[in-house]
Amino acid sequence: MKTKDNKIPEATIKRLSTYVNYLGRLGTDSNPVISSEILGESCQVSPAQIRKDLSYFGEFGVRGVGYDTKKLEAEIKDILGINHSWPTTVIGVGKLGQALLNFDFFRNHGFRIIAAFDSDPGKIGARITDEISILPTGDIEKTVNEKQISIGIITTPADWAQDVADRLIAGGIKGILNFAPIKVKVPDSIILRNVSITSELDNLAYLLTQKKRQ
Amino acid sequence: MKTKDNKIPEATIKRLSTYVNYLGRLGTDSNPVISSEILGESCQVSPAQIRKDLSYFGEFGVRGVGYDTKKLEAEIKDILGINHSWPTTVIGVGKLGQALLNFDFFRNHGFRIIAAFDSDPGKIGARITDEISILPTGDIEKTVNEKQISIGIITTPADWAQDVADRLIAGGIKGILNFAPIKVKVPDSIILRNVSITSELDNLAYLLTQKKRQ
DNA sequence: CCAACAATGTGATAACTGTCACACAATCGT
DNA sequence: ACGATTGTGTGACAGTTATCACATTGTTGG
Ligand SMILES: NC(=O)c1ccc[n+]([C@@H]2O[C@H](COP(=O)([O-])OP(=O)(O)OC[C@H]3O[C@@H](n4cnc5c(N)ncnc54)[C@H](O)[C@@H]3O)[C@@H](O)[C@H]2O)c1
Ligand SMILES: NC(=O)c1ccc[n+]([C@@H]2O[C@H](COP(=O)([O-])OP(=O)(O)OC[C@H]3O[C@@H](n4cnc5c(N)ncnc54)[C@H](O)[C@@H]3O)[C@@H](O)[C@H]2O)c1
């Protein structure tokens, strides 16, 4: 795969994720080929935007025809790096952590949760699946290191997020997805992304308020 | 509150949410005043960016001093429209829906979940809290209308998201927060925001892959 | 009262992102 | 064989967002 440039807009990556998700839901048998027009309608993105997004990474379509559905899906998965399974762990098996642990979608789309941690003695040892049982927080460093876990998902209360992040990093984690409503500090070598559900709701509230005030 | 302009960057709103969240966590007693420098360090935003963000809405600080912590928090809540409680409902009381229903944080920060819906006969009728028990999907229109619910949070499987959205809209909903991995179609008058956890993970995978390939 | 200082608010500028039009390549029908 | 048609790929342009420098304004200590 060629990357013409390394200055890809973040929004482009987000859209690629949408495209690949939609392509995966398509019956490839009935739709062997798809145009940017049709794809755009489903993803609510302009056709030109789709072509532009793809053009950052190469030429995947056939002029006058469109894109081979299956091939395009594979190409985007390759671009995003979800054509293999990233070993992943969840720390904090509360309400949200359990939802993520039981979310099968991940398994088929590039992520494999292979460990779970909690600090609650009442939870430690509980089986989640055949291969996962809840480990104590103190084991994070060792386990991440031994199992070569790449991605850590933090779903502990905010007060513990930094501590957990530090442990993950000590164990050699590569990337962190943080659900706690706090900005954890990590060295530049670690990729960090935050999911802020609260901020999405706040945004909704703002737009509703705007509409009312206008 | 004055709004100088109605072209506020979406990123600004997202950051305001971060600021207000951080300010809420501060002990206002020990920190009656805060500078853009300090706030920026905690929120990982440049001081200039913070001042710019706030300047879209007015002048809230005192030159040479900084911002009154409590007052700034109140001002941002006012800007975002989270200085009162939005009546909210969750549709799809599965793993994720339950996590959201039990997330107390919302209650103290501008959102009050006052109804929950599911289509599973085994779940209907179950009590969530004193005031909420799970209602059947067929009641969405009526309940949203009667209780004047403003915001609907969709946590059903993707295949049902559009149906649920249509019912919410028929009931007079104002805004929708959608967790299902599909783009639901809504009229322009409805505010729609999507939370895509998968896309955040994809983004993480992309960045990790980039790092590896570089 | 004034000078030294601290931190805000903002216009100018740079960087980034999205839109659009159209050249170009492949296919299809005659 | 070739013109008509379809839909991609991309350069030029427009719009948006972030960064920076500094003028401005309030505070504090002598
Ligand atoms: N529930 C939601 O809908 C929601 C939404 C947005 C953000 N969040 C955030 O996600 C995080 C988890 O939320 P939740 O609702 O699942 O809370 P929860 O209380 O249900 O779960 C937290 C879990 O973390 C465990 N834990 C505490 N300290 C720990 C530590 N040091 N190491 C490992 N595990 C530890 C607890 O034992 C518990 O099982 C919080 O930071 C919350 O703000 C939750
Ligand atoms: N669990 C996660 O971590 C996670 C992460 C990202 C996105 N999501 C998305 O959130 C949604 C819910 O995920 P989940 O893990 O909670 O699934 P789940 O299967 O645990 O829950 C889905 C719930 O929706 C109910 N439901 C089904 N059809 C309905 C209808 N027509 N009306 C009302 N309720 C209906 C089901 O009875 C069930 O209780 C899915 O779209 C999923 O893709 C989940």
Mean pLDDT of chain A: 94
Ligand inventory: nicotinamide-adenine-dinucleotide
CATH superfamily of the largest domain in chain A: NAD(P)-binding Rossmann-like Domain
**Which residue ranges of chain A are poorly predicted, with pLDDT under 50 across at least 5 consecutive positions?**
none
Using DSSP, what is the number of strands of chain A? 8
CATH topology of the largest domain in chain A: Rossmann fold
Order of helices and strands of chain A: HEHHEHEHEEHEHEEH
Helix count, DSSP H or I runs of 4 or more residues of chain A: 8
**Looking at the chains present, what oligomeric state does this protein adopt?**
homodimer
Topology:
2 copies of one chain form a homodimer.
Chain A: H1 10-25, E1 33-34, H2 36-43, H3 47-55, E2 67-68, H4 69-80, E3 86-91, H5 95-101, E4 111-118, E5 134-136, H6 140-146, E6 151-154, H7 158-170, E7 175-178, E8 191-194, H8 197-213
Parallel strand pairs in A: 3-4, 3-6, 4-5, 6-7, 7-8
Antiparallel strand pairs in A: 1-2
Helix pairs in contact in A: 1-4, 2-3, 6-7
Bound molecules: nicotinamide-adenine-dinucleotide (NAD) (2 copies).
The first copy, chain A, binds a DNA duplex (30 and 30 nucleotides) through residues 7, 9, 11-12, 35-37, 46-49, 51-52, 54-55, 59-67.
